[in-house]
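[job 0412] stage=fold_complex status=start
inputs:
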Amino acid sequence: METILGLDLPTWWFLVIGGLITGYGVLDGFDLGAGSLHLFFNKEESRRLVLNAIGPVWDGNEVWLVIAGGALFAGFPLVYGVIFSTFYIPFMLFLVALIFRAISIEFRSKEPWPWWRKMWDVSYTVSSTAITLLLGLVLGNLIHGLPINKAHEFTGNLWTFFNPYAILIAFTTLSLFMLHGAIYLVMKTENRLYAKLTIMVNNCSKFFILCFILTSMATLIYIPHMTHQFKNHPELFILPMVAVFILLNIKRNIDARKYFTAFFYSCIITSCLLILFAVGLYPNIVLSTTDPAYSISIYQAASSNKSLKIMLLIAAVGTPLVIAYSTFVFWTFRGKVKLTDMSY
Amino acid sequence: MPSVEILSRIQFAFTIAFHYIYPPLSIGLGLCLVIMEGLYLKTGKLLYKEITKFWIKIFALIFGIGVATGIVMEFEFGTNWATYSHYVGDIFGSALAAEGIFAFAMESAFLGVLLFGWDRVHKAVHYFSTIMVAVGSALSALWIVIANSWQQTPAGYRIEGHDLGARAVVTDFWEMVNNPSSVDRYAHVIIGSFLAGAFLVMSVSAWYILKKRFVEHAQAMFKVGLSVAVIAALAQLFTGHRSAHYVSKYQPAKLAAMEGHYDSLAVADMYIIGWVNNKEEKTTGIKIPGGLSFLTHGSFSAPVEGLHATPPEDRPRAVNFVFQTYHMMISIGMTLIGLTLLALILLWRKKLFQQRWLMIIFAWAVLLPQIANQVGWYAAEVGRQPWVVYKLLRTSDALSKKVTADQVMFSLVLFTLVYMLLFMLFLYLLNRKIQHGPDIAGSKHDDDHDQYYPNNLTNLPS
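[job 0412] stage=fold_complex status=done
writing structure:
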């Protein structure tokens, strides 16, 4: 099999897609988290400020989802079809939530009436939270494995997805994004809103640490293939250790009110958790709980080598561009958020 | 309950038709914004800055809904058409990924600067962002049209595997990208989008002129819209002809359906207006005898391949639907040429803005390019049936095997309700923004109060 820098092409694509999903988690993670926290702010001005803190960037962040989806479609078409048609109802609800979230942000400021704003505030928080929980639920089920038969067909039903482990992962994702969002907001605000947010960051970090511990224990007990990977590759133990180390660092930086550093670490821990998940799966993408032999590996699912190579080139040219645009936008809107006549 | 196939087709048709209200407007408005802001930078006149800001707000509304409804399409390939995804992933996936990474990322990132960056970046940087948003939206369309064109005229691929495990694999990327219909169809789509955007600008301007509000601004906006529309309307005649030509060469059954032509040995007529009876295989109406023969072969007496040349199971069944949508598109295209040329002549003779009747027509004419864009796609997509990938994969084989009819029914009902709500909100907010109009320097413009209270005392100097 053809290799580049010692890795075969499907593995490269596994990394590319993993990188894109991580990019999505890190970037959209904070604005989704900010959305989940939105209703905790009571005053109209506070709500406008926290909304405008994500105003210029949320749309660019969501692009990573579109790109990750496109990359999965392009790199592993078989898996794209299997995952998306398996999670039919969750993904449809996810799409509706995405629509409601986009219009909530866009429409809220268009009328001054309190009921109008309140309605979109609720819609914004509910949709942001629903998106996060659904993503977590899908992720949890992918870690846990699905009843997939020999023909790569899902044999469960809607209730299969609501197993305790997947629900736990859904809430862990929510706690992670809320923490991530709270740290972002505290960086972007000042005065009384800042003071309120410092308390919120503390509460979110407690919620996340609790979920983190529960998830770690549940994974060790219920997800044998994860522990199996660690038995075979003891050097991978560095990953959970890094995660714990970073978690402690986040807590320490929050206590020291160094929010920029804390935000950096919360980006890293999001990446770390997704890498752990990827390591547990590799070289499979979809695990079958019916029979491990029915799991879909990246080699079964990959597009042709030629296509993978072309797209690797597209990704190599495109990704720096995307990072450059994002950096430009984040740099333009650096500093504390201020309301202007063009604000939401 | 209807079958999974028909429900999935209805859902895809509905969600994509609804989505397609918005991207053409974004693309067309993007170009108009580049012109307006360019005029501001060139002349330094505040008026151009005010109309640019006004249209940016409308652009944001349209773009927002376009994005929200666009992600649905990407997901639906996987959820409802898993077999199709597997079959075309090697090819279609790369176009979709390229769209995301090269186009969508660009427009979304710079949109933030466009909307919120007026006070934060230099004028030139803001203008650069406007251009990037406009280029990004046009590039998005490029990759999507390439992907769709590959389904119409596949090229640069080979088939691997067989039966349900079969898939198309890229052999030549550039041949795939530059398949026989990509360029012509892209030109046709993009110019249709310019028309949609330009007619929206002209419609709003015409309405202001009729209501005698923001008259100076409205005339300036109208001229920007008209300059785009007059060129685009004429160019569309050319790209339309080119597109018809590719159809005649690569999809003769579709062309035959478009003109209701059955008999392969007969001379083919071109209809201005007509009706196809598919049962009796008869087409009646006002026609140019031998018109289609002339267009395809350059001779009024040459026979043209008819629907009979294709076995019944391989040709579109909704012949009259294809015929009507295709002809509606052409009639509208001709009307747009007439309208824009008339407006141009009147503008040249400095009589345009006094013609109330014409302003009334322009206020409503925003619907025409929208309808033409919609029905043009209906003709192209329904005319391709029963194939999802022409002559390679049937629509009925492309479904997700494990998705059930009640699941699709659930999502279809959900999307119908959500989109109805979305459309009502869109119209309401668009109307609000138009009622509000551009913010003009010097006149205090507190929300919408001055519009409802024209003699608002707060506006008087104290």
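[job 0412] summary: Strands of chain A lie at 3-4, 7-8, 284-286, 296-297.
[job 0412] exit 0
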